[in-house]
Amino acid sequence: GDRYQGEFLNGNVVPNLNREFPGNDNSYSAKTAKHVFDQILELKPDLVLDLHSYAHNSVIHTIIDRPGGEMEQNLIQLCQNSSVPFYLEYEAESFATQALDKSLSNQLCLHKIPSLTIELGPSKGFSLRQSELAKIGLINFLVATGNLEQKLEQNTTQNLAKNKEKAESNIA
Questions:
Q1: What is the pTM of this model?
Q2: What SS3 state is found at 113?
């Protein structure tokens, strides 16, 4: 059977295709990752956002691979424009030693297709606050990339308070 990291979703294991690429074996997950990569190359999108869940106490954040050069700088700028917290995956010197240079997202970047991993929050037990922050983060990415015409949502605490009050007034 396949051995890989993944999440359980409705009883099915969904592999982390980003880490499965390019696949070192003939497993279903490696074949799926290769198929996804080929489809993305064919479509040539302006940006790929790889959505993940994370640890139970996490908040939305973005992980930038280390493709180097102008691509890496453009991804950093995009993350800064989105107001979503981000970090660079490992130091540039150790990125390849972790085999992350072969990840799906990094390979897309090397093929001139910007790709980011967005950790939306916990894989189980999403609170209303966490889901609202994830939604705001995704909206801000769409605004930062010009795919949604509105202002960035900067003050998440105020937005959360407004949404809570609105929800409570709808119940009353």
A1: 0.71
A2: coil
